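Standup notes
- DV: blocked on the single-chain target, sequence here:
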Amino acid sequence: MDGFKNSDAKVMIVHSEDDTTVPIIYGYDIYYAEYADDPDFAFVRYTDRGHSSILTKSPELLSEVVNFYDESIGAA
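- DV (later): unblocked, structure below
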Protein backbone atom coordinates (compact mmCIF):
# COMPACT_ATOMS: atom_id res chain seq x y z
CA MET A 1 0.00 0.00 0.00
CA ASP A 2 2.84 2.40 0.76
CA GLY A 3 4.20 1.87 -2.73
CA PHE A 4 0.92 2.94 -4.29
CA LYS A 5 0.63 5.94 -1.98
CA ASN A 6 4.13 7.11 -2.94
CA SER A 7 3.69 6.61 -6.67
CA ASP A 8 2.10 8.60 -9.44
CA ALA A 9 1.48 5.40 -11.43
CA LYS A 10 -1.92 4.58 -12.89
CA VAL A 11 -3.21 1.23 -11.61
CA MET A 12 -5.89 -1.07 -13.01
CA ILE A 13 -7.17 -3.82 -10.71
CA VAL A 14 -9.01 -6.66 -12.50
CA HIS A 15 -10.38 -9.55 -10.47
CA SER A 16 -13.09 -12.18 -10.66
CA GLU A 17 -15.25 -13.07 -7.67
CA ASP A 18 -14.84 -16.79 -8.41
CA ASP A 19 -11.01 -16.71 -8.38
CA THR A 20 -10.05 -19.57 -6.07
CA THR A 21 -6.29 -19.05 -6.51
CA VAL A 22 -6.33 -15.49 -5.16
CA PRO A 23 -9.66 -14.88 -3.43
CA ILE A 24 -11.11 -11.47 -4.17
CA ILE A 25 -10.99 -10.49 -0.48
CA TYR A 26 -7.17 -10.70 -0.64
CA GLY A 27 -6.83 -8.59 -3.77
CA TYR A 28 -9.52 -6.44 -5.30
CA ASP A 29 -11.46 -5.81 -2.09
CA ILE A 30 -8.41 -4.52 -0.22
CA TYR A 31 -7.38 -2.13 -2.99
CA TYR A 32 -10.94 -1.00 -3.65
CA ALA A 33 -11.48 -0.13 0.02
CA GLU A 34 -8.34 2.00 -0.02
CA TYR A 35 -8.37 3.52 -3.52
CA ALA A 36 -11.96 3.52 -4.85
CA ASP A 37 -12.04 7.32 -4.99
CA ASP A 38 -8.51 7.75 -6.36
CA PRO A 39 -8.61 8.82 -10.03
CA ASP A 40 -5.31 7.01 -10.66
CA PHE A 41 -7.05 3.67 -10.06
CA ALA A 42 -9.46 1.78 -12.31
CA PHE A 43 -11.37 -1.24 -11.05
CA VAL A 44 -12.93 -4.06 -13.08
CA ARG A 45 -14.79 -6.76 -11.15
CA TYR A 46 -16.11 -9.94 -12.76
CA THR A 47 -18.24 -12.75 -11.36
CA ASP A 48 -17.38 -15.74 -13.57
CA ARG A 49 -13.89 -15.44 -15.06
CA GLY A 50 -11.80 -17.52 -12.65
CA HIS A 51 -8.11 -16.80 -12.09
CA SER A 52 -6.03 -16.80 -15.24
CA SER A 53 -8.40 -16.37 -18.15
CA ILE A 54 -9.78 -12.89 -17.60
CA LEU A 55 -7.99 -11.23 -20.52
CA THR A 56 -8.19 -14.18 -22.90
CA LYS A 57 -11.96 -14.47 -22.44
CA SER A 58 -12.56 -10.75 -22.85
CA PRO A 59 -11.16 -8.98 -25.90
CA GLU A 60 -13.04 -5.88 -24.74
CA LEU A 61 -11.16 -5.87 -21.44
CA LEU A 62 -7.84 -6.43 -23.18
CA SER A 63 -8.58 -3.39 -25.32
CA GLU A 64 -9.51 -1.42 -22.20
CA VAL A 65 -6.24 -2.42 -20.51
CA VAL A 66 -4.22 -1.34 -23.56
CA ASN A 67 -6.08 2.00 -23.71
CA PHE A 68 -5.58 2.53 -19.97
CA TYR A 69 -1.87 1.89 -20.38
CA ASP A 70 -1.56 4.15 -23.40
CA GLU A 71 -3.34 6.97 -21.58
CA SER A 72 -1.17 6.54 -18.50
CA ILE A 73 2.01 7.00 -20.52
CA GLY A 74 0.57 9.77 -22.68
CA ALA A 75 0.52 7.73 -25.86
CA ALA A 76 -3.22 8.02 -26.48
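- Follow-up: The first strand starts at residue 11 and ends at 16.
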